[in-house]
């Protein structure tokens, strides 16, 4: 297969703070190290010394794109199997923009992994975090996601509803749907 023929998968996580996205991604990569995580929280920590600092979104977004480009190249060279984008992605308009940017970057198979958890569960998880997100922000994001849930109409191949306590075994079968 030439590099142009190799499927280049991106799993874009979608969920409110406290829904389990980052924990899931970390566990997933521990079990499947040929996936790379691109995390906006990690980028904030690198750029500003603390993931709590929201910083300049344009600067963070440039880093996301740069890491996506590195991931696409690594997949095409056979060094990685895929990239996981760990961010809330709660607003449909922002998801669509990120999906378009991912396609331009070279991802050919994009899956939305939606952590559709009850607001009460996310708030409970948030209380146990060292970095707590304000409750009103979580509630607003929850309303946004319930009003405009992830959909294949956004330009992706599939939407998976991912429980925060496990990952689907089908992602890693020989017929990996991310590829």
Can you offer a commentary on this structure?
- This protein is an alpha/beta fold and about 180 residues long.
- It has a single domain (about 10-165), classed as P-loop containing nucleotide triphosphate hydrolases (Rossmann fold, 3-Layer(aba) Sandwich), CATH 3.40.50.
- The protein contains six helices and five strands.
- The protein has a five-stranded parallel beta sheet with strand order 2-3-1-4-5, sandwiched between helices.
- The longest helix has 20 residues, at about 55-75.
Brief overview:
By secondary structure, this protein is α/β, with parallel strands linked by helices.
What distinguishing features does this structure have?
single chain; 179 residues; alpha/beta; Rossmann fold; five-stranded parallel β-sheet; 6 helices; 42% helix; 15% strand
Topology:
Layout: E1 9-14, H1 21-31, E2 35-39, H2 40-48, H3 57-76, E3 82-86, H4 92-105, E4 109-114, H5 119-127, H6 135-147, E5 158-161
Parallel strand pairs: 1-3, 1-4, 2-3, 4-5
Helix pairs in contact: 2-3
CATH class: Alpha Beta
Averaged pLDDT: 85
Order of helices and strands: EHEHHEHEHHE
* Assembly of the depicted chains: single chain
Helical content stands at 40-55%
Strand order of the largest sheet: 2-3-1-4-5
Task: Count up the helices.
Answer: 6
The Rg value, from CA coordinates, equals 16 Å
What is the CATH T-level topology?
Answer: Rossmann fold
Low-confidence stretches: 166-179
- Major sheet: size, sense and barrel closure? 5 strands, parallel
Estimate nothing, just give the exact number of structural domains: 1
Beta-strand content bin: 5-15%
Q: Going by CATH, what is the homologous superfamily? A: P-loop containing nucleotide triphosphate hydrolases
Given the C-alpha coordinates, what overall shape results?
Answer: globular
CATH architecture annotation name? 3-Layer(aba) Sandwich
